[in-house]
Amino acid sequence: MRFYILLATCVSAVICSPTGDYCKAPFQRIGNGCYLISTEKVTGDAAAHVLCADRGAYLANFETLEEAMRMKYELLVRKTGLIYYIGGRKMNRNIAGGDWKWFKHGETSNIKYFLFPKSQPNGSSQDPQDCLSFWAPEENNWNRTAMIFIVFFASFLLTVKGAPTADPCGFPYRRIGEGCYLIVNDTVSADTAIVKTKIDQSFPDAQFRVDNYHFWRKDRNAHGGRIVMYIRSDLPCDRKQNMECEIIESIAAELVVNGKKWLISGMYRPQTISDNDFINDFTKTHDKISVKYDNMIFLGDLNYNLLSIDKCTPLSTVCDICGIENIVKGATCFTKDAKPTLNDVILTNKKNMLQNTTNFNCGLSDVHNIIAVQLKSDVPSIKKPLKKYRSYKQLDEEKFLHDLEQANLTTIVDNVENVNEAYDIFLTPN
């Protein structure tokens, strides 16, 4: 069975909806709603939630029967035969018949109607059915009874916040009717959909640049991965693409502080990369770096749990071969159904030149803490531009008006083009 995602400004496929009263491409208007109907393949409703959230949307809620019927018609016209995840969930398995609610941005609302097919839901405590989907049978045509059922699949609850902001129905979303939707045809797996940001070249640099900082990015595709790096613009630095890994996702940059060159590499290892490929790629890259740099730092999520000896052997092997060590202490990744893990690391060959290693939850990430470290170096402060302001603390309004009456403003205006120069002439006594 195939599962997909509709984003209403999201249907498994997936249906998403945007936050706010916006509906521009790739979202589309359907009835009074704004949706994105995506046919990206996902393996559970958690991945569907994340796919919508990464597009600034949420799994679609159909709060009235009319809304559901309009979407039914739209899906039947497409004749995809797919199952589309939507934002309905069973919140309490212990209540007879289930406690079904719409779920959006961490808030719930009652489902006021039901379109369950015969014998559904038929889950049990051993085989629970907790989430809702639209099912558009492949064999439907207009010569036969056309039906869309809400069907059920077991999965876990994932709180998702956000929807398209500022202009949520801009590209790649599009408007259908009065709704705003994104229809995606790419295939994703649950892990890559959940772990990364899914931002690709369709998102311009201008959305991520920060004043007074260099900005570099490395995209994988719209379904996972992606690394960005920021370095203060007043520090001598340069990206070194020849020092980046071939398989492991990475961005490498040279940074010069107090005359010392550092190679800083931000990394992410998807779990699809095998242990042998990781070891070979990392050590090969390290060999190239060590020829030109005495000081190096590798930081990022390598998906090896250093709190478990059995699960960190490849990373430990790399550290031994390269003469580097991890300086992050304590767990950095906290998931609902597993023990905390130390997946996010800062590896260096110059531990004594670093200080104030930080590992804390900033509330912005899904399950990961932020990790950071300081170099033991003094960096000059950013030079701030001098700004001139006119002071009105001693202003005497009557004298000011008198001066205006006595001044020959015509001469000043006719002969001077610069307003500041004109102001200086005005203040200069005759």
From TrEMBL:
<keyword id="KW-0732">Signal</keyword>
<dbReference type="InterPro" id="IPR016186">
    <property type="entry name" value="C-type_lectin-like/link_sf"/>
</dbReference>
<feature type="domain" description="C-type lectin">
    <location>
        <begin position="30"/>
        <end position="143"/>
    </location>
</feature>
<dbReference type="InterPro" id="IPR016187">
    <property type="entry name" value="CTDL_fold"/>
</dbReference>
<protein>
    <recommendedName>
        <fullName>C-type lectin domain-containing protein</fullName>
    </recommendedName>
</protein>
<dbReference type="InterPro" id="IPR036691">
    <property type="entry name" value="Endo/exonu/phosph_ase_sf"/>
</dbReference>
<feature type="signal peptide">
    <location>
        <begin position="1"/>
        <end position="16"/>
    </location>
</feature>
<dbReference type="InterPro" id="IPR001304">
    <property type="entry name" value="C-type_lectin-like"/>
</dbReference>
